[in-house]
Amino acid sequence: MTTRTVDRAQELAAFLRTRRERLDPIDFGLPTRRKVRRTPGLRREEVAELAGVSIDYIVRLEQARGLRPSADVVEALARALRLAPDERAYLFDLAQRRPRKADRPATIAAPPLARLVAGLSPLPAMLMNHRYDILAWNDEMARLLLDFDTLPPAERNSMWLCLMHPEIREFYVDRERVVREGIAHLRAAWAAHPEDQALTELIAEITTHDEEFARLWAERDVKVNGRGRKAMRHPDVGVIAVHFEVLMPLQDMDQRLMICRAADEESQSALDRLCAA
């Protein structure tokens, strides 16, 4: 499987089908008649009724027949399919009904943000763009994760490192969750930035070389992950658990500032030892 460009019609069709198939008729008060339901989830006619559109319209959407639903129809479909906020935004992006910036993706750190990253010490911090390219980092983040200076620029991407780098692959304690959440975030970025050829090439490369990524990418989960907790097995100081927060500067909205802090006393002690080394 490769991902060369965003085929909006095909992706919209597949996304609508997968969301429809995940729904339980019981949650809608619909008769289940499970013995005669040949597919999981809701039927097309049930979604059509909930969204206030024709069955033929749903069929044409799910068959990628070139329809471009209006913003009102997209909103109705989002409500009918009970989409989460990130999934709703993804649907609007696929339908090209959400305003987008025409600016090119950031490839270098904005100087004020690079200074901010350095000034956040002793908290580990780094700056990324929407496709997870690592643009700037402080010493604490390098000691926590990896000395990014030793990598060629093409490999300074946190998703690539997590999936392809021999050391980082086994770094996270809850690896599957971290990878799944990262892919869900990357899918949202992919739909929001269809002009970003570097992003589509990154996805194609990882899909070709990593079966885990290909499997999870095909599930079409969408989630923008701005905060959370990660536990890491550091080779020098043992397990370190951190809470992370991702912030978007208003004047450089393609850049994301990630800040980490220890999640417990043991992790803080491990970070202190790591940064004092």
From TrEMBL:
Annotated ranges, domain HTH cro/C1-type: 34-88
CDD domains: HTH_XRE
Transmembrane segments: none
Family matches, as SUPFAM superfamilies: lambda repressor-like DNA-binding domains
Gene3D superfamilies: 3.30.450.180, lambda repressor-like DNA-binding domains (1.10.260.40)
PANTHER family, alphabetized: BLL4672 PROTEIN-RELATED
Full protein name: Helix-turn-helix transcriptional regulator
UniProt organism field: Streptomyces lancefieldiae
